[in-house]
Amino acid sequence: ETGVTQSPTHLIKTRGQQVTLRCSSQSGHNTVSWYQQALGQGPQFIFQYYREEENGRGNFPPRFSGLQFPNYSSELNVNALELDDSALYLCASSSDRGEWYEQYFGPGTRLTVT
Amino acid sequence: KQEVTQIPAALSVPEGENLVLNCSFTDSAIYNLQWFRQDPGKGLTSLLLIQSSQREQTSGRLNASLDKSSGRSTLYIAASQPGDSATYLCAVLGGSEKLVFGKGTKLTVNP
Predict the structure, then answer these.
(1) Quick one: closest CA in A to B88, which residue?
(2) Of the candidates B44, B52, B59, which has an alpha carbon nearest to the alpha carbon of residue B102?
(3) Which CA distances in Å does B85 have to A42, A106, B20, B111?
């Protein structure tokens, strides 16, 4: 069983640029959630995708957008990058089958905005 | 709005000590509670998941309890080792199916 993978591992961008982060969900999972973790803080929920549709969004501006593909992999896009967007971005996959709703996390993408 | 608090923020103990990490949450309407471990600059490793109908879960030297009515959970680590040094995060899953995290407890186990 393949776990959750994310790419790239690290990324350095300049303020105002755009970035795309990618996530492959665990086999058999149809739900992907994205979280932002600033240094010294707990992860904050950005949004969730279920069967290619957005299924809930946290308190993040519209320049944070996403996609989920038919194979349930997902992208997080951030436009007009700001210095405060520097963080670890975590993706988690889960399944709507069963009652556990356990989320499995990938290794994260470290984004630095200069 | 769900809020999760973890106490203490940091903890330093000698090797071999038993220790307890605390987590509290404001809204008892949760599906489950998860404890995670995070090493510096790394992703999250799930340690234990407790369903809302359960009182505790155990895995090796780890034991997590849940008191949903009082909005509290504890993670008990027995016979701590230097390899246990990491940040421990508590998160609750509510009706919105998003995890709400605490800020974590940074644990250092000294040899």
Answers:
(1) A42
(2) B44
(3) 17, 20, 14, 11
Q: Which of B97, B101, B103 sits opposite A56 (nearest CB)?
A: B97
Cβ–Cβ under 8 Å, residues A45 and B100: yes
Which residues in chain A have their CB less than 8 angstroms from residue B49's CB?
100, 102
Closest by CA to A16, choosing from A106, A102, A104, A78, is A78
Report chain A residues whose CB lies below 8 A from the CB of B41.
Answer: 88, 110
Residue whose tokens read 């149809």: A30
User: What secondary structure, in 3-state letters, does A61-103 show?
Assistant: CCCEEEEECCCCCEEEEECCCCHHHCEEEEEEEECCCCCCCCC
Query: Does B99 sit within 8 Å of A35, measured CB to CB?
Result: yes
- Burial classification of residue B102, based on how many CB atoms lie within 10 Å of its CB (0-12 exposed, 13-18 middle, 19 or more buried): buried
B11-24: pLDDT as tens digits:
999 999 999 999 99
Report the C-alpha gap between A109 and A8 in whole angstroms.
6
Whole-angstrom Cα distance, residue B33 to residue A103? 11
pLDDT one-digit tens code per residue, B68-111 = 999 999 999 999 999 999 999 999 998 777 899 999 999 999 99
**Residue B21 contacts A where some CB pair is shorter than 8 Å:** no
